[in-house]
Amino acid sequence: MRHRIVRDGVVAGILGATAVAVWFLGVDLIYAHAFATPEALGRGVLRLFGPPGTEGAMVFVVVYTIFHYAAFIAAGLLVSVIVHWAQTSPTVLAGAMMLFVAFEIGFYGLSSALSESPFLGALGWAQVATGNLIAALVMGTYMWRTHPELKSELDYALAGKE
């Protein structure tokens, strides 16, 4: 069982991270600057550890890509634990849905606030929100298709039968 939880979480995380990466590559190509988004975000991640040095653009892209995939795999593992937990306690899905909505609202608020910063201002909150929505849909679709019992568990959870 643990192996399946980990596998589902890692696969969901990789799918979500790749979907967002492809989305931002497309956005960056429209603005004629490939990899501008991961470069800017990588700069921000490295800035947490001190002032920027002489790193090149590819270092920022690689650092952010590693961070990006690690974060999405962690999120995928959380989703996988919830999905597997719902097999024995379907009502956990109702709580998870409320938590997801609250997280999304907070995420969009944070993205909007960060869009006002001079460092990430070029990264529009609407683009971030769209990427986040794409990732949620891709990860959710993967879990939905690999766990057909989710429909009945979700129906049970939303009916408030416990």
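The above is record 1. Record 2 follows with the same two-line structure.
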Amino acid sequence: MEQGKRQLKVSSLLQSELASVFRDKFRELTATSLVTITMVRVTADLSLARVYLSVFGPNQSESKELLIQRLGQVKSAIRGELGHRIRNQLRVVPDLEFYLDDSLDYAEHIEKLLKENYPSQK
């Protein structure tokens, strides 16, 4: 579904502020991995923000799921810090849901398949 201008502005604000919250206050959660907020999607009523994370780390398979679980456990603290930072821009801080963004893994998989099936012809 297409997002409106207000949703896009709020999504952009949340993405940048969440990145700084993770960097400043919740560094211990993301210490073993490189975590990037790839996208934030906000519902039309601005009550829910779906945060998509790309995670790269030493033990990727179990680390990704564990990180999402840990973020879910401290969601209220993250939301509180986010509310403190955006209190002048938004009246109500949306509820947060964290998801893994596996689009980069999928693109890498497709590229690998293409290389296997169509080796370069030199």
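The first helix runs from residue 5 to 24.
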